[in-house]
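Morning run. Coffee first, then this:
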Amino acid sequence: MIIGGIDPGSRGCIALIDTETKICTYLKIPYRSDKTVDAKMIYAYLPLDECSEIYFEEVHGRGGTWGAKQNHTFGFNVGAILQTLTDYHTLYEHYSYEIFFVKPKEWQVWAHCGIIGDNPKQKSKLGFDKINPDAKIKHDGVIDAFHIARFGVINAYSSNSSITSNYAFIDASK
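And here it is:
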């Protein structure tokens, strides 16, 4: 079973975890020269047709800390990623995956379990390193997308026991 996780931020990523091989294939959200999401690259590099479930981080604009342009750009990118998934699903009707929305606090409960600190990004990195001590991943979008996909795996299997092993990571763009 392949389960996906999406961190839709400007440094976002799509991560797909194969529960049988323990391989996480990821792609940092690709952007075209006009700074919009490049759907063709997502189609080309990720095996979305093999996914059974995709977990999409349900995040919102940041009001006072972001200006109107930043909030608009963020919302536009979230919509473009969702449209990419919907288009793919529509174009290839025989492929079906469900899209679930997950709040940051929901996936972070698992990702930050046993980690002390106040900074969510640091806690996610520490949680990631705890699960994947051999991985050399530093990009916060990859780390968060992995945790979101892992949250999906935990939901699918209703257990954390079979999925705590060290994963192998493949950058789909290379």
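The domain at 2-171 is CATH 3.30.420.10 (Nucleotidyltransferase; domain 5). Good start to the day.
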